[in-house]
């Protein structure tokens, strides 16, 4: 790809120091990248599944060999602690391992024919050039979750990493090159000022046959509209508003632990974060007290510093949204148990980990993803009541609940309108599961045995003239 002199400075959100620059590319360079992917598809799609397996396994091994460097890059550009960055890195690498094995297990079918001279089979073939548009909250894992199945299927890709975290993407591509991925198979378009134009081109260009996106619901809808111009395949993981329910028969200590890992991982900046925490009235006070005590012991700061448990938010806009949500909740009767404001004693974009009690159902937090370290506690009385409230949302990505009643577990899990549910756990993400939502949280699934199918087409072949004498 041709690089221009246009560039953008990228800063560490914890320290505000400049990390480096990347090109601010536009539509012209995007078309060059798509053309390169189209040319490379002709040969990459002809490689055997075993060959692609071997490349992906080598890619995986290289990621593990470079764990320290790649994890440090995640912390520097995203802000999450080094421990969290290492967890993301291992999660990121696991997609390469999983889909290396899936590459050699893509099977067709034999379908019995009603006609004696016809034999029916199906085969699966790579869809073609794929546009991969990824978010900043998991700058490595959100790329490999799309890239690994695409490569395993025999597709070529153009990646548009987020403007906030481009370096993890570039580091991954460097390792892919070392692993033997041929030129043109993976292409990266870094951009900031031209995000809309680049996104439109990646969704509309005729050579592109599939669009995979992770981000907000509004942008997902726009990309789906653009992709419809040529009826491309789409996979969209859009916004969430995850409920977290604690029933009166739950193990409260485990529920508190689950709430912490779900709500405060990456300082609350994940798409499957608990956003609405519903606690049954009889245990509400005890749960709120225990959660507040735990959160009060958090230490915010530079993710590379010893003892730091939580890093900064990604930018000023994130701080402004979290502050708006807290002020709105408090104006409608919520009480701040811990935190509640920006941390002004640190140079970066830090917000104090916060627990709000007595949050009402008419607050902004109930309708919008906070994407920050704010645990909003809401009291409820009955099982049916909380199910109805949870299902009132337009989105349905993930949710969690804690209960030791087996009958309740099955009833609630089946009743909640969500794509993914954690029962007695606040952590659900794994390479081997089908990740995705329902309603306005998107289309398709990433990961698991379903993930590679998103990058393949099923072709039917009928063989005639085969009847015996």
UniProtKB/TrEMBL annotation:
InterPro entries: Ald_DH/histidinol_DH (IPR016161), Ald_DH_C (IPR016163), Ald_DH_CS_CYS (IPR016160), Ald_DH_CS_GLU (IPR029510), Ald_DH_N (IPR016162), Aldehyde_DH_dom (IPR015590), Aldehyde_DH_Superfamily (IPR050740), Succ_semiAld_DH (IPR010102)
EC number: 1.2.1.16
Annotated PROSITE patterns: ALDEHYDE_DEHYDR_CYS (PS00070), ALDEHYDE_DEHYDR_GLU (PS00687)
Organism: Tulasnella calospora MUT 4182
Keywords for this protein: Oxidoreductase
Phylogenetic placement of the source organism: Eukaryota, Fungi, Dikarya, Basidiomycota, Agaricomycotina
GO CC term, one of those recorded: cytoplasm
A GO molecular-function annotation: succinate-semialdehyde dehydrogenase (NAD+) activity
Domain Aldehyde dehydrogenase: 11-461
Family membership noted in the UniProt record: Belongs to the aldehyde dehydrogenase family.
Pathway as given in its UniProt record: Amino-acid degradation; 4-aminobutanoate degradation
Reaction(s) catalysed by this chain's protein: succinate semialdehyde + NADP(+) + H2O = succinate + NADPH + 2 H(+); succinate semialdehyde + NAD(+) + H2O = succinate + NADH + 2 H(+)
Identification of the protein by name: Succinate-semialdehyde dehydrogenase
Biological-process GO terms, alphabetical: gamma-aminobutyric acid catabolic process
Active site per the UniProt annotation: 237
Listed CDD domains: ALDH_F5_SSADH_GabD (cd07103)
Glycoprotein is among the record's keywords: no
A Pfam family this chain is assigned to: Aldedh
